[in-house]
Amino acid sequence: MSKQLELPESFVRFLEANGIDPSIYNEGDSLPRYVRLKPGFEDVVQEIESEINCKMEQLNWLPGFYSIPPHVHIARSKAYQQGKMYGIDAASGAAVSALGISPGDHVLDLCAAPGAKLCMMLDLLGDKGTATGVDVARHRLSACRTMLQKYGLGERSRLFLADGTTFSLPPTTNLPCGSCDEETFKQWTSRRPYKERKQVAKTRNNFVLPHDAHPEIVFYGHNSGVLVDAECTHDGSIKHIQKFEQWGWTTLERRVLDAERTDTNLTALQLNLLRNGFRLLKQGGILVYSTCSLTHAQNEDVVDEFLAESSSAELQEIEMAKDWPCRSGRTPKTVRFDPSTSATSGLFVARIKKMAPEKNVL
């Protein structure tokens, strides 16, 4: 039987104001955990099952994913320590799948930390293509770098400490890490505000993973896929909310329920992340917008506002979602995962294609 979680009144009011049933937070103890096997390690399933002493149930709707009982931890298993599998919620895996990544693509994760989705993106790329990860938090990006290195995925990836709402890159030429030559870099930064120049300098020195030069990496609207898993109130992440019982509910109020943060500031941030991600997408490319919030304000409302202002953005049906354990969002063609429907964390997913801009008709 699931434990009854005593939620603080302030959080209950937030849920009620957004039409969210507080009882979903009592389902956390019954939700399975999910892991993804690295490609090529499918034959070690029985070995892992023996080590963690439980059955791994393969998901028939999401390749490479397995569910395990909620009480089972994988951190001490050899398969985890040796980089053969990693934990990632199935709903997050679905959001990455919606990008339709193919080998050779250049993809961007605009809110990359802690790194599991970026790892999956790189797995889908195989031996061709590159992935760029961006995050505004230094400590989280550091953890992301550690994860990429653990799973041997640093060779085709780059990490940048930057604000996802303004992130952009100078043209790449012949230096490692996808950066530009010194003269081009100086010319480019001389035209940027001081704060941005300082940020770019930190990026070059501290947070780009070492790898061979990739002169074919392109910028300013040439990414074939962009994932914007935007900062949100995390109210759909049931296990995350449960942790506040140990961390303290006042921490929840500070991090999640601050009125200024959950009103216009947060949705403005989400919209600006979406705008910049779309700007960095090439024509014909796919952007996936997602959050782990269950509210309409942070999901459908953001997508609807963006679509209304962008004539070259086309909201697309997620064809593979016909096989997913999800439901339709309020905006047609969007989908939602939630604990009751999907046995996953809550997640909203929208797939947007960048079309040719409309020509003016005289």
Automatic annotation (TrEMBL):
Residues 20-355 form the SAM-dependent MTase RsmB/NOP-type domain. One of its GO terms (biological process) is RNA methylation. Transmembrane segments: none annotated. InterPro entries: MeTrfase_RsmB-F_NOP2_cat, MeTrfase_RsmB-F_NOP2_dom, RCMT, RCMT_subfamily_9, SAM-dependent_MTases_sf. GO terms for molecular function: RNA binding; RNA methyltransferase activity. The active site is at residue 292. Pfam families: Methyltr_RsmB-F. S-adenosyl-L-methionine binds at residues 135, 163, 229. The keyword Hydrolase does not apply. Keywords: Methyltransferase, RNA-binding, S-adenosyl-L-methionine, Transferase. Belongs to the class I-like SAM-binding methyltransferase superfamily. RsmB/NOP family. This is SAM-dependent MTase RsmB/NOP-type domain-containing protein.
